[in-house]
Amino acid sequence: MRIGLVGVGRIGAFHTETLRDLPDVDEVVVADLDAGTARAVADKLGVGFAGSPAELLASGVDGLVIATATPCHAPLLRMGLDAGVPTFCEKPVAATLDETIDLARLVATTTTPVHVGFQRRFDCGYRRAQEAVAEGRLGFVHSIRAQTHDQAPPHATYIPSSGGLFRDCSIHDFDIIRFVTGREVASVYATGANKGADFFSAAGDVDTAAAVLTLDDDTLVSVSATRYNGAGHDVRMEVLGSEGTIGVGYDDSLAVTSAEPGATYPSGPRHWSFMERFLPAYRAELTAFATVARGTLASPCTVQDALQAFRVAEACELSRRENRPVSLDEIPDL
Fold first, then answer.
1. pTM value?
2. pLDDT value of position 47
3. Which of 140, 187, 207, 288 is deepest in the core (most CB within 10 A)?
4. Residue 29 pairs with which residues in a beta bridge?
């Protein structure tokens, strides 16, 4: 199997190494908008090189991995679909809701699979939480707490094109909430604030946010996000039910210091980035994509899934701006 990858930044280079080492992948070929950077990464990692995304697709690949910056996702995804090549695309599939809807409509007209990179679906903890809910081991689920707290903010130049904290960061929580519960979000009430660098406010964004989601079965979900969590990268979920509670992210890496006398948990070491936190999950999702590209597995995360998570993020951003509850019925869908 020959896999092409476009975008050789941090996550792209990591994906290249992962794909290169998969037993079912015979060759990896990389390309980038900056051909020189792609050539350097190809030489360093011992993989193939193509001078452009178009050249890569024209050379014949069995699967395409899109790991570029967000503005390039939709055009490259369309190229992959036009070529009939199974495609993996990092989230989000597009920078706007309208374009995401257009892509979902396009995908509905083709048999070419698209796998969207919400890696938490492949994290062991989240999968065990999903199984506990599906098997009824928690009784009825009444509350969920979910959080994504970055240890430090990204560079200022990233924020204006990021889509904002809800679309860039909390969208992972919105997707995994759907995955774990099997339910849809019915309404949201969100807010946000800035206490950090001025570039968040300058871009119309916030560095810290919170939202209350009501699911379609009346489960209440609290979601929080921040760019400033100096204790470490902290991603967690608690699912609370009438018969039990299960927690994701509660191991010795937990970025919390206990205030209880004599407590030694958690002992560390802590995670300092999403790459550390989800390293096994990233590998598992690309292993799954290789199976998708072979035609023996349906997409584990579709463009339709990505659209629904994006709609929740859009509703949260609208709620934050207008300081009011927002029903998901207000947000366009297919």
1. 0.97
2. 98
3. 207
4. 4, 48
SS3 of the chain: helix, strand, coil, percent, to 5: 40, 20, 35
> Which CATH architecture fits 2-120+283-301?
3-Layer(aba) Sandwich (3.40)
Q: Using CA of residue 212, residue 127, residue 122, residue 80, what is the dihedral sign?
A: negative
Residue with tokens 């992962």: 18
Token pair listed for 306: 């990505």
Q: Are 100 and 306 in contact (CB under 8 A)?
A: yes
- The token pair at 189 is 């009430």
pLDDT at 284 (0 to 100): 97
State mean pLDDT over 184-196: 98
Digit-coded pLDDT (tens) for 171-180: 999 999 999 9
Instruction: State pLDDT tens for residues 267-312.
Output: 999 999 999 999 999 999 999 999 999 999 999 999 999 999 999 9
**How would you class 40 by CB atoms within 10 Å of its CB: exposed for 0-12, middle for 13-18, buried for 19 or more?**
middle
Helix (H) / strand (E) element for 16: namely helix 10-20
Mean pLDDT of 203-221: 98
* Domain 121-274+309-330: which CATH number of 3.30.360.10, 3.40.50.150, 2.60.40.1190, 3.40.50.1820: 3.30.360.10
Mean pLDDT of the chain: 97
Residue 10, by phi and psi: left (phi above 0), alpha (psi -120 to 50) or beta?
A: alpha
What is the length of the chain? 334
Residue with tokens 């902290």: 234
Q: Calculate the CA 44 to chain-centre distance.
A: 27
Asked whether 317 and 190 are in contact (CB, 8 A), the reply is yes
